[in-house]
Amino acid sequence: MVTKRHQETVVTRGAIENDTISGVAAKYWAPFTKETHEKFDAKLIDIIYENEMLKTQFNSRKIMMLEFSQYLEEYLWPNYQAQSASKAYNLSIVVMVNEKFRERSLDAWACFSKKADEFSGFFRRVLELSLQEEGHGQQTNHVLRLKRAVKVKGGIYACPECSYSTDSLANRRLHFKRNHNKSR
Predict the structure, then answer these.
(1) In Å, how far from its chain's centre is CA 183?
(2) Whether residue 137 sits in one domain with residue 47
(3) CA–CA gap between residue 160 and residue 151 (Å, rounded)
(4) Which of 72, 77, 101, 131 could make an S-S bridge to 96, C-beta 3.0–4.6 Å?
(5) Same-domain pairing of 134 and 57
């Protein structure tokens, strides 16, 4: 028996072809349309975050559609620059990484090796967002789920900025706030 929840997360070929994300992906990042891609537009990321993530309350089908379109690998990460990335840009990456873990993807971090030098800047921005007072709701939820990113064997959280490590995410955040949180 297929449950209602399972039906909501099943994505069919027809659903992929008819979803607005597929059209946007074909225009901007789909690997099969590389020759005709529009120029990168950071505003598009904010629009997708607002309309496809926030307004749908992070609907799993919408997030899966973005994952199937290779949004993270082909658009978000290749164009990422920590110093100019918006809150929506950073949280979009967090949501997509969390989706990869939800799907139990073994290569959830593979795309980050293409621009490995940007990863510490990304991680810094995500931690800064988690320390902000406003907008805790979904934002904090997604950021806390990203803790998988820094958890290594033995339950130790490692700082991407220095050699500090701890077995507590709260201590890791405190360390970051005290040692790496520079005013921008």
Answers:
(1) 24
(2) yes
(3) 11
(4) 72
(5) yes
